[in-house]
Amino acid sequence: MSEDAPDMCAPEIYREFGKPYTEQVAAAGGGCWIHHHAKGFHVHGDVAKVKGLKMGELSWDPNCPRPVDRLETILAENAGVPLMIRCTARDVYEKIESMKRGRLALMLMADSLPEAEEALAFIRKHTPAWEESCL
């Protein structure tokens, strides 16, 4: 589901006019995956609390803070709900400890296949539980 419109609203407006309807759709569909934008950091805490949320995605937008740079805050707001974010290989190397504290799906932005393979090897080396949970 897209929650792009709430990214332009005040949190109290989303709570009153958006979230209840998003939750109705989520209930009818057995849960939901919500996409919204970094422009909506101010409503993310409310989006992350949508009943039935199975996965959230925060897009990386121009002229906005990158979600990966606010990872600790976002993970706290998500309270265990998996999160999809974009990141670079450098982000992986610099933020692996924070990444290990959350349930993440990373969209790795790499300049080359070898760069992506190296970053993935680094992730696997530093998150041994990941390999066991994927079997």
Give a written overview of the molecule.
This protein is α/β, with parallel strands linked by helices and 135 residues long. It has one domain. 48% of the residues lie in helices and 19% in strands. It has a four-stranded parallel beta sheet with strand order 1-2-3-4. The relative contact order is 0.11. The mean pLDDT is 91.
Protein traits:
135 residues, alpha/beta, 4-stranded parallel sheet, 7 helices, 48% helix, elongated
Task: Give the topology, please.
Layout: H1 11-17, H2 19-29, E1 32-37, H3 41-47, E2 53-59, H4 71-78, E3 83-88, H5 89-100, E4 104-109, H6 113-126, H7 128-133
Parallel strand pairs: 1-2, 2-3, 3-4
Helix pairs in contact: 5-6
Quick recap of the structure?
The chain is of the alpha/beta class and about 140 residues long. The chain is about 50% helix and about 20% strand. The protein has one domain (about 5-135).
Helix content: 40-55%
Order of helices and strands: HHEHEHEHEHH
Task: List low-pLDDT spans.
Answer: none
Principal-axes geometry comes out as: elongated
Total tally of structural domains: 1
Structural class: alpha/beta
Oligomer kind = single chain
The total of helices stands at 7
Q: If strands are numbered along the chain, what order do they take across the biggest sheet?
A: 1-2-3-4
* Total DSSP E strands: 4
- Could you tell me the strand content as a percent range? 15-25%
Q: Could you report the average pLDDT, rounded to the nearest whole number?
A: 91
Radius of gyration over alpha carbons? Answer: 16 Å
Main sheet?
4 strands, parallel
Distance between the first and last residues' Cα: 29 Å
